[in-house]
Design a protein that fits this description.
Layout: H1 16-35, H2 38-47, H3 51-56, H4 61-69
Helix pairs in contact: 2-4
Length: about 80
């Protein structure tokens, strides 16, 4: 029967999480900014209505998205 012995040496490598932390923080900040915009809040309110509710008001989801986003909806 063979026995394998390993010597557990840990390297003192720089953790990559420390390098990625600033980028994650910047990403979270950008998401927070986007979610705070009036357009995003209006889109969130729109998503809470069903297509039937919008149709009862004479609206379409696509038309409301275009109204909310303006020229940016063409992108």
């Amino acid at each position: 029967m063979a026995t394998i012995a390993t010597a557990g040496q840990k390297t003192a490598a720089f953790p990559t999480s420390a390098l990625l932390a600033p980028f994650r923080a910047i990403g979270r900040f950008m998401i927070t900014l986007a979610e705070a915009s009036p357009q995003m809040r209006a889109l969130n309110r729109l998503s809470q209505h069903s297509d039937a509710e919008l149709a009862a008001k004479g609206l379409t989801r696509e038309g409301e998205i275009r109204r909310i986003l303006g020229g940016a909806a063409a992108l």
